[in-house]
Specification:
The protein has helices spanning 3-17, 29-36, 40-52, 71-95, 98-112, 120-138, 141-153, 155-163, 172-183, 187-219; strands spanning 56-59, 63-66. It has 10 helices and 2 strands, in the order H-H-H-E-E-H-H-H-H-H-H-H. The two termini are 32 Å apart. Strand 1 and strand 2 form a beta hairpin. By secondary structure, it is mainly α. Strands 1-2 form a two-stranded antiparallel ribbon. The chain folds into 2 domains: 3-66, Winged helix-like DNA-binding domain superfamily/Winged helix DNA-binding domain (Arc Repressor Mutant, subunit A, Orthogonal Bundle); 71-219, Up-down Bundle (Four Helix Bundle (Hemerythrin (Met), subunit A)), CATH 1.20.120.
Amino acid sequence: MARKPIEIADALERAILCGEFAAGELINEPELATKFGVSRTPVREALLNLSAAGLVELKRGTGAIVVGVSLDTIFEAYEVLANALGFACALAAERMTPFQRAALQDIVAEMRRNVSKDARERYIVLDEQLHEAILEGAKNAMLARQVRECKRRIAAVRQLSMRSHESVEHIVPELERVVAAIADGDPKAARAALEEHINLRGSGAQRLVAHWRKLTESEA
């Protein structure tokens, strides 16, 4: 995606998460094109990106409808994600091959090398690779679909939360504990470590969105 659609998508993501757009609201493409000084094509590309993140629903003949994300939805999604991905970690600890365990360790080692703000996009990519490696190692297709659908619903919240930190160095040890437990073949420890990590990140994401919404209300 070119730079301008990305900038538009980022601005709309934050506006939706801050509550500037109500759930069910139809997004006015011509109005956005005028606001950002672009044609409707970059706006449509941005809306496609938001659709993939689960923030809008594209309806033929109607346009982009805001799905919205409530604080309750964020809490519930992280709660489900902690349980499902935690179970996947337990299965991975039992089922992963030595090669897969080594690959998992390589990913988290690279995450350790990419904790600075200027490496954030690479860190986000690695975070996704880590989750996918765990799901592959768990060898349960139904569970993998559940985890991916849950992550899709809060993709924008998760990514904006990760981008909000000056450094993610404090998060990496949480993931290192998960990977160490999987590498040791300890399903109970792997699940507990992952659930702790997701619960901590979920609380942080909720606080961030709540803070943005208070700022938006105070500026209104």
